[in-house]
Every structure is written in structure tokens, then in C-alpha cells.
Design goal:
Number of helices: 3
Strand order of the largest sheet: 1-2-3-5-4
Shape: rod-shaped
Largest sheet: 5 strands, mixed, barrel
Structural class: alpha+beta
Number of strands: 5
Helix content: 40-55%
Distance between the termini: 79 Å
């Protein structure tokens, strides 16, 4: 069996293993094995193939993996879904108490409760959405 084919099989096996681990390290080793397979196909002797693989893998794991990991661990910059409603203002459609009521948030009507259960918020008031609990907005009146 040709050496380039062995390197190609190793690259494929490492790529498949990367799919299951999602660590980026095995993917980098797979890329190094793929480059080494190309060098082996061009006729590079076996000791230099191992040297090339070792150098590529070391440099990649030391320099490329931390950059990739940093991009994967970035905090979410945008809020989506109901999380995006927290902090927005709402218009009280029907009286809101600690037990219930209705508010309009961005054109949609939501069930609502007062964030402070002792408050009674009259219709027409502007409130801030403090939290979304299921399909109910917990609101607090604007001062």
C-alpha cells in the first residue's frame, strides 16, 4: 500500500473523529495528515513525512487552535426570541395587577403581571418589560 494512501486514510479517520469530539484538535491533525499525504504522493521520503506531519501538527495546535477556540467561545452579542423583549417598553391595554392584565409589546398583545405584586397599573400607562415568564410579561411602571 502506498504511503500517501495511508496518510489519506489517517486524515479521514481523524476528520471523522473530529465530528464526534468537536475539539478542533483532531481536525487540525486531520489537515496536517492531508498535507502530508500530498507530500508523500510527490515522493517525499518517510522520515521527512513524519517530520512534516509533526511540524504542521505542532504549529497548528499551538497557534491555530487557540484562535479557533476563542471564536467559538465568544459570548452571544444579540438577544433573540422572548429574550429580546426584556428591557423594552410596553403599553398597558387592560389593568395590570399581580394576578394578570394585558400589555402591547411592539404590536403584539401579551398577558402580563406586575413585577411588584402590590402594584396596580392602569390602562394607558407605559411600562418596562422586566422579565418574560412563559407567555406572560412581568412589567414595572415607568416613573
Amino acid at each position: 500500500m502506498d504511503l500517501w494512501l495511508i496518510w489519506l486514510i489517517a486524515a479521514g479517520a481523524l476528520a471523522v473523529a473530529e465530528i464526534f469530539t468537536l475539539t478542533a484538535a483532531l481536525g487540525i491533525l486531520s489537515a496536517a495528515a492531508l498535507v502530508t499525504a500530498g507530500a508523500a504522493a510527490l515522493g517525499l521520503p518517510l522520515p521527512f513525512q513524519f517530520l512534516l506531519f509533526t511540524m504542521l501538527a505542532t504549529v497548528s495546535v499551538l497557534f491555530v487552535r487557540p484562535i479557533a477556540a476563542r471564536h467559538l467561545l465568544k459570548p452571544q452579542t444579540e438577544r433573540f426570541g422572548v429574550d429580546a423583549l426584556v428591557g423594552r417598553s410596553a403599553y398597558v391595554v387592560s389593568e395590570v395587577t399581580g394576578l394578570g392584565g394585558r400589555v402591547r409589546i411592539g404590536g403584539e398583545e401579551w398577558t402580563a403581571r406586575a413585577y411588584d405584586e402590590t402594584l396596580v397599573i392602569p390602562p394607558g400607562a407605559t411600562v418596562d418589560v422586566m422579565e418574560i415568564n412563559g407567555a406572560t410579561a412581568l412589567v414595572y411602571p415607568r416613573e
